[in-house]
Design a protein that fits this description.
- The complex is a heterodimer of chains A (345) and B (279).
- Chain A is built from 14 helices and eleven strands.
- With 345 residues, chain A is an alpha/beta fold.
- Chain A has two domains: 203 residues, no CATH class; 106 residues, no CATH class.
- In chain A, strand 8 and strand 9 form a beta hairpin.
- Chain A starts with a strand and ends with a helix.
- With 279 residues, chain B is of the alpha/beta class.
- Chain B folds into two domains: 88 residues, Elongation Factor Tu (Ef-tu), domain 3 (Beta Barrel), CATH 2.40.30.10; 161 residues, Rossmann fold.
- The radius of gyration of chain B is 19 Å and the shape is globular.
- In chain B, strands 11-10-9-8-12-13-14 form a seven-stranded mixed beta sheet, with helices on both faces. Chain B has a six-stranded antiparallel beta sheet with strand order 5-4-7-2-3-6.
- Classes of the chains: A alpha/beta (345), B alpha/beta (279).
- At the A-B interface, strand 4, strand 5, helix 4, strand 10 and helix 11 of A face strand 1 and strand 5 of B.
């Protein structure tokens, strides 16, 4: 795949060109040091020096609420129509941790039976990644997870080289788009050397945050299944579900029906759910398979560091640090991992 | 702007209730015929029943796949949707998705002796397997059926059970947890009391166990005493499957093996789930 150069002064022209083809979203400031992906029309609306957005880009692949079926029971036989409102969408400035998160979700939803609603959105998304040259803050564990470097999953990928971005194409669609812009020449060997140097420098900046090889973690979780760490988390956890809402790889959902005022037509909705809620694993007979908070927290961690490793040979933590940043009880993923490792390695 | 999706897993199949019967105060039985033909299930699978505007629930198919033309459900009034379903009668339209899940291992069990154990509502899914074995009687060896429920008033499928009881080559026993009805001639006591008396050749026996979560631990302990291999104890586990497609996360079992009850189950060998925190 080809690599191109985008001068910072041409960023606005790039966004405008993109907007001609599709809706463009990018990180914008929401005040108080918070950022969110939102629609932009020009480059000056976005902030590229940003810490992970409040919600990850998963909201564009699997919206918090999504209508999946419309029904009509007015006739003799009910009618149902499966629906999506997916539209072509460019997501600009996606950090490597969030690209990794989207890759995780792609794996889950493309597994048989394929999720048609998710795939409709995925197939209309144009992803433009953005490399982090430094840490966003102290909560990230991207060096542990190896997500501080690009690892595919983008159409185009930008690295800030000072005056310009080096833009790597990851798909034919990405390359095609870049080729069509006369202000984006192909990268020279000097540009590529500058990229190599930047990556070399990153090695000194990004250091494994828990000083333990990630490959050790599934074993640590096996051994620590009955660790007191879980009870300690359970003591403090408020069971609010913030951590799962903001997680780029959490995708659990609930289904519900809504009737319109005519009581004849309505729709089914898929909505984010959280394994941290008390009723998540409750069944009709009254049995609750994860009644206590410590068990629910352990479940969440297992779904990042153990279960998906068995199932998809992939960790489902991207090191973005959102769960720690958002936790009202100030529970830290990094500290939890450190405690578990200390006790079980 | 919404557009239609043709290959969506949320599309519904439509059918009509051709017969309905109240079995007990809280359990209602339905015989359902689908517009698009056979349900196409195997014993042990489940469907999602969608009561448009009310909600959706996972329900085990109670009839055997050897029964053609229609399929049966037996639904206990437990929540919003299942309470609504108690009002449904012959002629009512129902919409469903499925069948879903891994069926009982009917093929692997061929040529083996079978022990069927059901507690309470466990008879509903197990019935699909029992009747399958009855309809393929020559494929299986000796059959033991041990059933239990709370009181004689809670017994489901009474007539059918009597038929099994009187069939040749079937060793049948029934127990109720408690009973103050002098007319009751069966056993009284927990279902575990029925197991020590069973005559079993463990190597050639499959035990198929379905019941409430609390029952498994005690029944399995008795079966292990009988030396039945853990790979030949088959369970059907209860979880609240919301999608049936291995995505929504609700039915995941807390075991090191990362099973989804809707896709990897609901039927499991005990060997598969013996490390699960709760069955």
């Amino acid at each position: 795949m080809k690599q191109f150069i985008l001068k910072k002064k041409d960023l606005d022209a790039f966004i405008k060109k993109l907007s001609e083809k599709m809706k463009v979203v990018a990180p914008v400031s929401k005040g108080g040091g918070n950022f969110a992906f939102d629609e932009i029309l020009s480059a000056d609306e976005m902030v590229l020096d940003y810490i992970p957005t409040i919600l990850p880009p998963k909201k564009y692949f699997m919206p918090q609420r999504e209508k999946v079926l419309e029904f009509d029971v007015s006739g003799d036989m009910p009618k149902d129509t499966a629906v999506t409102d997916a539209e072509p969408l460019a997501i600009f400035g996606v950090h490597t941790c969030d690209l990794a998160g989207i890759e995780c979700l792609n794996g889950v939803f493309s597994e048989e039976p394929e999720d048609a609603n998710y795939m409709a959105r995925k197939n209309k998304a144009f992803l433009i990644g953005l490399e982090c040259n430094k840490y966003c803050d102290e909560h990230a564990t991207c060096a542990l997870m190896g997500t501080h470097l690009p690892n595919g999953g983008y159409d185009l990928f930008l690295t800030d080289l000072g005056e310009e971005f080096l833009v790597a194409a990851g798909t034919d669609a990405g390359e095609e788009f870049a080729k069509g812009l006369d202000f984006m020449p192909e990268a020279s060997s000097e540009n590529i050397a500058a990229l190599d140097k930047l990556r070399e420098n990153k090695k000194a900046i990004f250091k494994n945050e828990i000083a333990t090889d990630v490959k050790e973690l599934p074993g640590v979780f096996d051994k620590g299944a009955e660790s007191k760490v879980w009870g300690d988390l359970g003591e403090k956890c408020l069971s609010c579900g913030n951590c799962t809402n903001v997680c780029p790889t959490c995708y659990c959902f609930d289904m519900s029906d809504t009737l319109n005022l005519d009581l004849k037509t309505g729709y089914r909705t898929r909505e984010w759910d959280s394994c941290q809620f008390e009723t998540f694993a409750l069944v009709a007979g009254g049995e609750n398979f994860r009644e206590i908070r410590g068990d629910r927290q352990k479940h969440r961690y297992n779904r990042k560091f153990k279960y998906p490793v068995d199932k998809y040979d992939k960790f489902f933590c991207t090191g973005c640090g959102r769960c720690t940043r958002t936790c009202m009880a100030e529970l830290s993923l990094k500290e939890t991992l450190k405690s578990l490792v200390k006790e079980n390695l | 702007m919404t557009e239609e999706i043709k290959n969506s897993g949320w599309k519904l199949r439509k059918g009509t209730i051709i017969e309905a019967k109240q079995l007990t105060k809280t359990e209602r039985w339905f015989d359902i015929k689908l517009d698009d033909g056979e349900l196409g299930h195997e014993p042990g699978q489940f469907i999602q029943v969608e009561m448009l505007g009310v909600g959706e629930v996972p329900i085990s198919v109670s009839s055997s796949s050897t029964k053609k033309g229609s399929f049966e459900l037996c639904v206990r009034a437990a929540g919003r949707v299942t309470n609504y379903m108690q009002t449904l009668d012959k002629g009512a339209i129902v919409t469903i998705r499925g069948p879903f899940g891994k069926p009982f291992p009917t093929k692997e069990m061929e040529g083996k002796d079978l022990v069927f154990i059901a507690g309470g509502l466990g008879i509903v899914p197990l019935r699909s397997m029992i009747n399958y074995a009855m309809d393929n009687r020559d494929k299986y060896g000796k059959i033991d059926i041990a059933l239990g429920c709370r009181t004689p008033k809670d017994i489901l499928f009474k007539e059918e059970i009597e038929r099994w009881e009187n069939m040749e080559g079937i060793n049948f026993s029934y127990t109720v947890d408690k009973c103050d009805d002098p007319a009751w001639k069966g056993n009284t006591g927990l279902i575990t009391t029925l197991i020590p008396g069973l005559e079993i050749d463990p190597a050639k026996t499959y035990a198929v166990v379905v019941g409430p979560p609390i029952m498994y631990k005690f029944v399995i302990a008795e079966l292990l005493k009988k030396k039945i291999p853990t790979t030949q104890i088959i369970l059907s586990l209860e979880r609240h499957m919301k999608c049936g497609m291995g995505k929504c996360g609700h039915c995941q079992i807390d075991s090191p093996k990362n099973y989804y009850c809707c896709k990897d189950g609901p039927t499991f060998t005990y060997e598969q789930v013996k490390d699960a925190k709760k069955l």
